[in-house]
Amino acid sequence: MDNPFVTTEWLAAHLDDPDVVILDGSWHMPNAARNAQAEYLAGHIPGAVFFDIDGIADTSSELPHMLPAPADFARMVGALGISEAMTIVVYDELGLFSAPRVWWTFRAMGAPDVRILAGGGPKWRAERRPTEPGLVTRERQVFTPQFNPTLVADFERVRDSSRDAAAQIADARPAPRFHAEVPEPRAGLRGGHIPGSLNVPVSLLTEAGEMRSPEQLRQLLSDRGVKLDQPIITSCGSGITASTLALALELAGARDVAVYDGSWTEWGGRPDAEISS
């Protein structure tokens, strides 16, 4: 795939480019005691718009931040001043945590040029680059979606793949959660993993807030039993770090990668879903 990352130097040189839109895609785990939107209002990259992962979602679903219908997504991001024709640059304040979820979302909705800021907010701040407080608003745009269903896996597809191995299932959660050795951070969920799935903890994919090299990723994925020339479905707790794993897989050379949108929040919450530990 083309390099999905842009550098802080590149972004600093394009802050005022009318064809570039910057998105703060920060999101934190429910038990992190952090408020991404409040932190955005306190200070963000100049001109950045806050992308609310929980708000720009299918709010009729009981599952968190599920993909909205394409028309709903188009309406919501158009109101933020985003067109599919723009270069969309996403970052988060953990370096590389939730930005890939926003990257994946826009790709699923057909945006052709979506990038991630390498190193994210932490690198930008460490380099003492400018920030600004407050809410950024942009002129409304028309976003024309072209939904790509091949990038999204639902419960039925994951269940069938678990049973017949038509696709590999790679789980980005930490090993203690994968093996049901610690409770899930979302109350009421059973522990364990999807039968037949492989554990690829997202923490292995990055170093100092940036993605490892394609060569390192290929070796790491091979060591975990992932075959890049076969279809792969990624999963995690609720579809956030599954997107980071999907990004890593594509960088490593995989060409058939889908994200299980409901992830463990759906699977572990369904009594009809089989579980291994």
| Structural class by SSE content | alpha/beta
What's the CATH H-level superfamily name of the largest domain? Rhodanese-like domain
Order of helices and strands: EHEHEHEHEHEHEHEEEHEHEH
Detail the poorly predicted runs: none
> What spatial form do the alpha-carbon principal axes imply?
globular
Q: Which percent band covers the strand fraction?
A: 5-15%
Biggest sheet architecture: 5 strands, parallel
Provide the CATH topology of the largest domain. Answer: Oxidized Rhodanese, domain 1
Q: What would you say the CATH architecture of the largest domain is? A: 3-Layer(aba) Sandwich
Count up the domains: 2
Mean pLDDT: 96
Question: Would you spell out the secondary-structure blueprint of this structure?
Answer:
Elements: E1 5-6, H1 8-13, E2 20-24, H2 36-42, E3 49-50, H3 70-79, E4 87-91, H4 99-108, E5 114-117, H5 120-126, E6 152-153, H6 155-164, E7 168-171, H7 175-178, E8 198-199, E9 206-207, E10 210-211, H8 214-223, E11 232-235, H9 241-252, E12 257-260, H10 263-267
Architecture overview:
With 277 residues, this protein is an alpha/beta fold. It folds into two domains: 5-147, Rhodanese-like domain (Oxidized Rhodanese, domain 1), CATH 3.40.250; 150-267, Oxidized Rhodanese, domain 1 (3-Layer(aba) Sandwich), CATH 3.40.250. It has ten helices and twelve strands. It has helices at 8-13, 36-42, 70-79, 99-108, 120-126, 155-164, 175-178, 214-223, 241-252, 263-267; strands at 5-6, 20-24, 49-50, 87-91, 114-117, 152-153, 168-171, 198-199, 206-207, 210-211, 232-235, 257-260. The protein has a five-stranded parallel sheet with strand order 1-5-4-2-3. Strand 2, helix 2 and strand 3 form a beta-alpha-beta unit. The longest helix has 12 residues, at 241-252. It is globular. The model has no long low-confidence stretch (mean pLDDT 96).
